[in-house]
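Good morning C.,

I know you're traveling, so I'll keep this short. The sequence:
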Amino acid sequence: MISSRLARIFCLLLAGALGLVLPARAQILSTLGDSLSGAIGITVGSDEVYAASFTTGSNLTGYSVSSLTVQNAVDTQGVVSQNMGIYANSGSNPNMASGTLFLQQTFPAQGNADVLYTPTTSLTLAPNTTYWLGITAGSNNTNGFEDTNKTTYTATNGWVLNSGMSYYNDSIWTTYSPTPNILFSINATALPTPEPSSWALLGLGCTALWFLRHRSRSL
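The tokens, ready to paste straight into the viewer:
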């Protein structure tokens, strides 16, 4: 009887604690709203990387990235060897050895197109941390991205698009332009964070378990 009562109390307290976890919030950083007026298509060669940096918000448990959307300049329809990646920051450039690649869906017809990229593995970004979004290519192709003077972006929960864009070629990183020129959005979710009251309920549950267990032994 004691064990049955014990189980019921613990389950109620645990359910209460879990119920007080903060709900996950949609998190999107986007530059896709920029005008394409005067833009030109930039092709990405097999030995090149174009990268723009951003800093995540302050959610204590970080963010789970589900997909990227990139405004591509499509010249060849179908699947080509071009990937996106999110990389850790190393100094003032991406650390290409620490990235998570995103695979693109089939390119649509020729012209400007928003192309969806999905991660090859699960990806969690730490809070208040700088990362790089980079475009790479496994082989030379005539697809790339729209190069435009981006001036605005939308973000929630403290995410920031940093100024400057880096370019990699011939084993050297250089500054490509004073403003990020990749039109993209990062689709992510803020991971749930327990409130202090949740931890208090869990502590109360453990105390109740300890008390009932010792009481049953003394009977």
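Safe travels,
E.
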